[in-house]
Design goal:
Structural class: alpha/beta
Distance between the termini: 60 Å
Organism: Apiospora aurea
Pfam family, one: Abhydrolase_3
Protein name: Alpha/beta hydrolase fold-3 domain-containing protein
CATH class of the largest domain: Alpha Beta
Keywords: Hydrolase
Order of helices and strands: HHHHEHEHEHEHEHEEEHEHEHHEEH
Shape: globular
Family: Belongs to the 'GDXG' lipolytic enzyme family.
Largest sheet: 10 strands, mixed
Radius of gyration: 22 Å
Helix content: 25-40%
Length: 484
């Protein structure tokens, strides 16, 4: 192996800075325009956001809405870089064991088959993913460290033990990072998991599930299910088992896991897990932050809320123009990065199409005035109709997952506090959780009650029509005409 040449590190750093410069330079005119409109109070966002927030959202929007996108593999690779572990955080890296039985996959596939209804053609065949070890990071708050502290050079199990010494509650959060199923990693979400651990006094199990397009649906869902069972019934390390079922948190995957568990329980199924037949218990609660439910991006807010968000405008599913690389287009070809065409509207992917959430545990949902607002508000109204306790918080004028993007905004502090408060209460006294629906005003932070009856104007027929129209299919449901 060749020895590194002097200056190699500097050269790489210089190249990275140059690449960043070339990314930023073309955006300067649009940033200047945003600043001028904001200062002159001539833009609607300037009425709700401060200048810094407005510039960040606008810059992200211009960065993500590229007319000539780069290859999927390059974008994915950039988001998987590990920045290293420093500061007031414990990280203990682990990997689940593969059970000797295939029962967990068989039960998942049975749940997928029994819940597909009329959303999947009768001859549609679901992929059968391998059962693999699923990596994760135990995360805890390291109170006595400094911002520059590194983790001690001790075995991972010892790191876990040191982390547990600092936990002051029984909270266990099963965290699934965002990234539209093809980006990001537990490493990119450490600021969020550390903050949740600090605020709850508990621990976070952050899962490195398989990503699309290499591993499409239902690979991530199987990894989530394996991780959930690993916490419920640890094969060897019984000390890692939570005192009560963990609380899935994140977005689509946390709710897909919940709906999977509900379907398994509806059918009375059990999982053979390391030699024992195990019941699949419901989680203690689910805490979803800006959850993506409508994966085909069919609801109106994906267009009408563009001025408040940085997410790019939906593209026609038949016209995804990504540069070719080793992982895209998929083989055989499909329209969506995450899922095969036949399963685009499966209710375990397009979660807004589920017929029922009855008997679900308490659920927390927050969102802003983002592109996902319609689906999130519909979901909350559906939970209420199904008799589920739900805490909903809407943040005026905020973009998608704003608490992670606008870390210094007071709304972000309020969001983390509300998120963590719900999780702690769900672990301590879930019976005391009462449904609430609140708007948090942008500049005053005033909290205003929402009439849940007026939360969503859409019917279930509307949602089916939106979704079927979006994928160019004719609905097989009565009274739901779709475009041909």
């Amino acid at each position: 192996m060749a020895e590194p040449k002097p200056g190699d590190g500097v050269t790489k750093a210089a190249k990275a800075r140059l690449a960043l410069l070339w990314t930023v330079l073309p955006k300067i005119p649009s940033v200047i325009r945003v600043v001028l409109l904001h200062v002159l109070k001539m833009s609607e966002p300037s009425r709700y956001l401060d200048l810094r927030e407005n510039v960040i959202v606008s810059f992200l929007r211009s960065l993500l809405d590229q007319p000539n996108p780069q290859p999927i593999s390059k974008t994915q690779r950039m988001t998987l870089r590990d920045p290293g572990i420093k500061g007031r955080i414990w990280i203990s890296k682990v990997s689940s064991q593969v059970p000797p039985e295939e029962s967990i996959r068989d039960v998942l596939l049975a749940a997928i088959d029994s819940s597909k209804g009329q959303f999947v053609a009768a001859d549609g065949i679901c992929r059968v993913p391998d059962i693999v070890p699923v990596e994760a990071e135990w995360t805890g708050y390291r109170a006595h460290a400094s911002p520059s502290s590194e983790l001690p050079a001790i075995p991972e199990q010892q790191k876990y033990g040191e982390m547990m010494k600092e936990c002051s509650s029984d909270v266990t959060i099963l965290y699934f990072h965002g990234g539209a199923y093809y980006l990001m990693d537990p490493a990119s979400h450490r600021p969020t998991t550390k903050r949740l651990a600090k605020l709850t006094g508990g621990r976070v199990y952050s899962v490195r599930y398989r990503l699309a397009p290499q591993d499409p649906f239902p690979s991530a869902l199987l990894d989530a299910f394996v991780s959930y069972m690993t916490l419920l019934y640890p094969p060897l390390e019984q000390s890692t088992r939570p005192s009560m079922p963990p609380i899935p948190a994140g977005g689509n995957l946390s709710l897909a896991l919940l709906q999977t568990v509900l379907e398994i329980r509806r059918r009375g199924l059990k999982v053979t897990w390391f030699g024992h037949e195990r019941e699949v218990h419901l989680p203690a609660a689910v805490a979803a932050n800006s959850p993506w439910l409508d994966i085909v991006q069919s609801m109106p807010s994906w267009t009408t809320n563009q001025k408040w968000d940085y997410l790019p405008r939906p593209r026609d599913l038949a016209d995804i123009k990504q540069p070719k690389d080793a992982i895209w287009p998929a083989k055989p070809p499909r329209k969506h990065l995450f899922i095969d065409d036949d399963f685009l509207l499966h209710p375990l992917a397009c979660l807004q199409l589920n017929a029922s959430w009855e008997r679900a545990p308490p659920i927390y949902v927050c969102c802003g005035w983002e592109c996902l607002a319609d689906e999130d508000k519909w979901f909350v109204s559906k939970l209420v109709k199904d008799g589920v306790a739900v805490v909903f918080e809407e943040y005026e004028a905020m973009p998608h997952v704003f608490a992670a993007i606008l870390e210094k905004a007071p709304q972000s502090t309020r969001c983390f506090d509300g998120w963590a408060k719900f999780i702690s209460q769900a672990c301590g006294s879930p019976q005391e959780i009462r449904s609430s629906f609140t708007t948090i005003k942008a500049k005053t932070m005033k909290e205003v009650d929402i009439n849940v009856k007026n939360l969503s104007p859409f019917t279930e027929e509307d949602l089916r029509r939106f979704a079927f129209d979006r994928v160019g299919r004719k609905s097989s449901f009565p009274n739901t005409p779709a475009k041909l």
